[in-house]
Amino acid sequence: MAIEDRLELFVTEQARLLVVLFAVVGLFCLAGAGYLFLTPTTQTISEERNVQTIDSSVGTSAVVTGNSTLYERGERLENRSAYFVPVTPNLSFHVDTKVPSNQEVTVSQRLTMEVVGLRGDEPFYQSEEVLLDEQRTVSDGRLVTDRSINVSAMRQALQRKRAETRGVGHFRTFLELNVTYRTDSYEGTLTASAPFIISGQAYYLDGAVADSQTRSETVQRDVQRPSDPTKYGSLAALGLVLFGLCGLIIRTEADSDPDALRTRISRSRHDEWISRGEFPTESEKQYISIRSLEDLVDVAIDTNRRVIYDPNIEVYAVIDGSEIYYYSLEDLHARAWLNL
């Protein structure tokens, strides 16, 4: 209760200052909310225009020509993880390049097989066989070209090279793709490679041979966006709350009795010095009015007495012999009751 009384007393004593302060801040909040509502924000955004994608990849296929318990003769195998020389001695590469279809695009495709002899990390032999080299202009958005190789003959050639080097170093084979393009807006190059492994009777591409590019033009422009309702709404709500507090402060000031509040605060602070009771009202007693309850408590402390509270007449008093020190909010009523 003491905390509420202290707060109410503070509001009552500082009512004018608080009303002016809250009213000014509330006006600023409402003005700020109106400004945010009437002023849209401008934001710069980036847009990607004229987006074009070019991609190229190499697929594989082989027709079964040898006897096998795995496949039927004449069966066509596509993009397998491994092929076998006795079953499929010939392998076809399919270079598939996709470009924008709404225009003419010039495409150059080059596919090579490179053999490198290495001792450690240093090469001692290098050769390159061009499997495909062509340039064409397409308007339907796609260029597909095939090229076949004889893997059996390739394996024999590698075996002769290994025999000549008598185990010094090793040979590695790579399939390399190089594609250049020129559209109405862009030009560039796609490159990809992967090891071509021949191990015993098996052979395979050890990885994907594919590359892709997406080209675009970045354009920036300013756009207006509506104001954020949470921002101007919060400011407006805060302004209304502040004006509501102004009304509450004015009402509190009108309804509050500062003296009564101070008495309750003092009563709470010095409650251990105050006891309930009645004190005599004989005419021979000398009654001394004290200005506040806190001053009366000081009298009690100085005279080593207790403060007596009579709830019937709402009077606090310290009785010291023939002298009665008293305090009451309703001083006239107390004097009438005491026949003073």
UniProtKB/TrEMBL annotation:
List keywords of the entry alphabetically: Membrane, Transmembrane, Transmembrane helix
Transmembrane stretches, start-end: 17-38
Q: Which InterPro entries match?
A: DUF5305
- Give the matching Pfam families: DUF5305 (PF17231)
Question: What is the name of the protein in this document?
Answer: DUF5305 domain-containing protein
